[in-house]
Amino acid sequence: MSDTFTVTTYNIHKGMSPLNRYAKVNGIAAALKQLNPDILLLQEVQGQHLQRTLQFNDFPDQSQHEFFGEFLSLNSSYGKNAIHPNRHHGNAVLSRFPLDPKHNVNISVNRLEHRGVLHCEIYPPNWSKPLVVLCAHLNLLEHDRIKQYQAIADYVLNTIDPSWPLILGGDFNDWKFKSDHLIAHHLGLTEAYVSHCGHLAKTFPAKLPVLSLDRLYVRHLEVVKAVVHDGEPWSGLSDHLPISAVLKPKFAD
């Protein structure tokens, strides 16, 4: 096996087009198959939506993390965050390597936005340590995010071995650029796209991206390459664009 692997983070907008007119689950699956990531972090994953299942022929009956897992031949885990009558959604982690779901951390700070961080441990072949993956989706308001940054930092410091390689990725909704100060520096993380390209990736809105909402932070991992996937077909699949990074461990196997 190569010592490098590819991780992708993507807010899939519950499998719907940017304006919610069309189901895009099949298109998202096909596009992700072309990327062929080893590890996939998804946000706004629809675990169930009975109305859309009936309304759209290509909206799957099964949970979207299971659908993508089967289509891409990846192991999958789902963290349910927002629960409503006949529907729920959250975050998902998918992996080509053995995956151990550990905990879905509730970081909700108000009644309107139900947010979480899905913690999984992944075991690439011949690694001496597990790879910790945290898939996050943060609030829209800055004062809420400040509380969530602290909650994530406390969880990492109290729960995760500081010598283990770590990926913290997802939709940070951080249009004020506070994550680097409050999360990355405090935990010793590097943002993958910044490391490779010198600036944050513009990922929202997908058709004409101007905001840098999506991030991939890493620790004890070398960033070999990072890219934002823009243009067709991505501009019509979700309201966000995905980011991928090619990484390799900094520790000895």
TrEMBL record:
Cross-referenced Pfam families: Exo_endo_phos
UniProt keywords, alphabetically: Endonuclease, Hydrolase, Nuclease
UniProt keyword annotation of Transmembrane present: no
GO molecular function: endonuclease activity
Origin: domain of life: Bacteria
Keyword Lyase: no
Domain Endonuclease/exonuclease/phosphatase: 9-240
Protein name: Endonuclease/exonuclease/phosphatase family protein
Originating organism: Vitreoscilla stercoraria
